Amino acid sequence: MEPKIQKVVLAYSGGLDTSVILHWIRDNFGCEVVAYCADVGQGDETEGLERKALAAGASKLYLEDLREEFARDFVFPMMRANAVYEGYYLLGTSIARPAIARKQAEIASREGADTVAHGATGKGNDQVRFELTFARLAPHLTVLAPWRHPQWPFTGRADMIAYAAEKHIPVPVTAERPYSMDRNLVHVSYEGGILEDPWREPYRDMFRLTVAPEDAPDQAEYVEVEYLHGDPVALNGEPLSPSLIIERANQLGGRHGIGRVDLVENRYVGIKSRGVYETPGLTLLMHAHRGVEQVTLDREVMHLRDGLVPRYAEMVYNGQWFAPERESLQAFIDHAQWQVSGVARLKIYKGAVSIAGRRSVNSLYDPAMSSFEGPGGYHQADAEGFIRLNSLRLRAIAQVERRAPKMKN
């Protein structure tokens, strides 16, 4: 028998799912529901949220400004790793969930709540990301996941839209445009509805942060990003806080159509899903970070780190932010980033980003050594012994192959 729920802290966005969930929890369990919304950079979506939450039955609303915390403690460490999932996805939604869940656990403790709830479906990744965070930071709390609850009466978003209309719950989704949208400081993601057809191109007017590349300015723009120990600290010479540098990079990249991705990805739960993302700022900052790394990181350290990036990205995607393996890998990455300070210059034009220059006081690049115009301290004859040693194993294999009888087809 499940313990009786006394008080719930619900991760609440004011969107379709959590608006219906708030109303349903209160009616179904007869308990107090405290609504909590994390401002992680979703803009004007938080306007009027308290009125909506109270009207849906919440006892109160916590609206927590996590923008600097989110950028500093979550996005920046991930950016130091150059984390990309399956070659395309810059993990904008994935990295926000542990930040939101950490504060939710803190509020549950402050409120004396026995339960935390979220609106993630049983088919998605977010349920894992929320609940692995709770397991590490607040294992004493009961987790209520309505989409997985046996009494949950809805089979999909169409049912919820009808329920919201019946109960007069204001929601920003209509049957005419039934895709789901998630926005934060890092990106906007779109999924569901018409986007479930992977052959169908997204609506042209769907995008919020970026213009279409073909509509971007006909003149290229240059931008300089300064890094200190692997973190961006200034844009075009202007020092900025972590959240502000991401916002400014979003504006720069957005007007040039940078950072759109259309991806069929592999969810952690085993389902393929189609997501459309726009991540202009992080796309710019990722290129700039790579530019500074090119002149400051040792070859073997860079190659070792790059070999671990897919695994790191999987950890973030799978909700393992507070797991010991991610924390251990982060320690290595952060140690390697200590020398990554300098400036990268980017050229952005109609959806494309290229590195136009890089410089650093920690640069390992030696123009005299690299030049074809002089020795620069490099003795070319040394390469003969280097090649001879590296070819020993290949010569041994060739000798064995010549002695062995040929295989018949």
Describe this structure in words.
By secondary structure, the protein is α/β, with parallel strands linked by helices. It has 3 domains: about 170 residues, 3-Layer(aba) Sandwich (Rossmann fold), CATH 3.40.50; about 180 residues, Argininosuccinate synthetase, chain A, domain 2 (Alpha-Beta Complex), CATH 3.90.1260; about 35 residues, no CATH class. About 40% of the residues lie in helices and about 20% in strands. The chain contains 12 helices and 14 strands. The strands form 3 sheets. A 5-stranded parallel β-sheet has the order 3-2-1-4-5, sandwiched between helices.
Task: Give the topology, please.
Elements: E1 7-11, H1 16-29, E2 32-39, H2 49-55, E3 60-65, H3 67-80, H4 92-111, E4 115-117, H5 126-137, E5 142-144, H6 157-166, E6 180-183, E7 188-191, E8 221-228, E9 231-235, E10 238-239, H7 242-254, E11 260-266, E12 272-278, H8 280-296, H9 299-317, H10 324-336, E13 342-349, E14 352-359, H11 367-370, H12 382-403
Helix fraction, binned, reads 40-55%
* Mean pLDDT level: 93
State the secondary-structure class.
alpha/beta
Name given to the CATH architecture of the largest domain = Alpha-Beta Complex
| CATH topology description of the largest domain | Argininosuccinate synthetase, chain A, domain 2
Q: What order do the SSEs take from the amino end to the carboxyl end, as H and E?
A: EHEHEHHEHEHEEEEEHEEHHHEEHH
Q: Strand order, main sheet: write it out.
A: 3-2-1-4-5
Oligomer: single chain
DSSP helix count?
Answer: 12
> What is the makeup of the main sheet?
5 strands, parallel
**Coarse morphology:** elongated
